[in-house]
Amino acid sequence: FSGAEFLYFADEDHVPYGTKSRADIVQLSLDAVGFLVSRGADAVVVACNTATSAAISELRGTFSVPVIGMEPAVKLAADSFGARPTLLIATPLTIVGEKLARLVGRLECETWSLPLPRLVEFAQDLEFDSPAVRTYLRQELGKFELARLGSLVLGCTHFNYFKDILREILPPHVRIIDGIDGTLNRLASELGGGLKLAGGEDLPSRAAKFNADGGVEFDTNSSVQIDKFEEQGRGEGGGQSIKGKSKRGSEGRGEGEQGKEGGDEGCGDEQGAERCDECGGKIYYSNGNSVEYFYSGRALDVAQLYKIEVFLKRLDAMREID
User: 4 - beta bridge partners?
Assistant: First the structure.
């Protein structure tokens, strides 16, 4: 997509979802989608297989906007490589979910499943290619006859960051498949082939602006940005994480521990105004897209923006691996 305006909600207070109960995931998902809808979202993508498995029915029953979920691409794998078994790797909750069971039950293909909860934790810690990651994946994948496989399905969006390690371990003939393209196609279909155009100021094609807690500007060039993020984010102790009230639309989540932590309009004063919604930073890209980031209960600081850039660079590096 180009020339589109996106809102990105990262629930940093509660990740990873894969180790939580279904009831908790449903409530967290309702809160997150409610926040996005309150910000004017025309459609919502639940970019998490676990949240889709646990909460998609409740989300679609609660909100009037289209809600698109992530599903493991086991049907694509079966249609393309059905003569050989498919191995699905995902979080434990996705694997035991009724939604996946119904999907697999309709396929005429032998499907194996493997929960990999630690891989999510490695991704959250930005640990993508350490000896510990390699050891973990070799031990877990070693439980299967990999030579028999036709495809490996990534049933968790975090797992895309590890395609290079998976490619090293798997036999050359095994294809690695994820459901991202299918999700994006569904989004385009739901919105009639078009997306809401970004408004706001015009920026040069190579300029980007990040606004959070007063406003900071960086160059778009990736290497320049990463250098600045490393210098500012790490040099300042990783930035300041300020907790604020977390609201669902205008109603709020209640008076839990996070609900009691307030802030002023800049999210910097616990004794400030009545509430401080999730604070974000907006980035403009050269293709005309804008992405406004929200980290639940925290102002988006330099260290968190650095983390976003690390994830994006890692995904770019994995893009050509299948």
Answer: 197
Q: Which of 61, 87, 264 is nearest to 166 (CA)?
A: 87
Of 6-10, 147-151, 275-279, give the lowest mean pLDDT range.
275-279
Q: Are the beta carbons of 250 and 38 closer than 8 angstroms?
A: yes
Residue 69's SS3 state is: strand
CA distances to 31, 57, 188, 294 from 11, rounded to whole Å, are 10, 20, 25, 8
Q: What is the pLDDT of residues 41-96, one digit of tens each?
A: 999 999 999 999 999 999 999 999 999 998 888 888 888 887 899 999 998 888 88
Residue type, 77: A
pLDDT above 90 covers a percentage of the chain that reads: 33
pLDDT tens-digit readout, 222-249:
343 444 434 444 444 333 222 222 233 3
SS3 276: coil
| Cα–Cα distance for residue pair 165/26, rounded to 1 Å | 32
Task: Tell me if residue 156 is catalytic.
Answer: yes
The single residue listed with the structure tokens 């008076």 is: 255
Q: Which residues of 216-234 are buried (b: 16+ CB within 10 A; e: fewer)?
A: eebebeeeebbebbeebbe
What end-to-end distance do the CA atoms of the chain give, in Å?
A: 22
Q: Which of 48, 109, 267, 276 is catalytic?
A: 48
Count of residues in the chain: 322
Catalytic hit among 109, 156, 276, 279: 156
Question: Which residue do the tokens 């930073």 mark?
Answer: 281
Angstrom distance (rounded) from CA 29 to CA 15 = 12
Farthest-apart Cα atoms in the chain, separation: 63
- SS3 (DSSP) at 312: helix
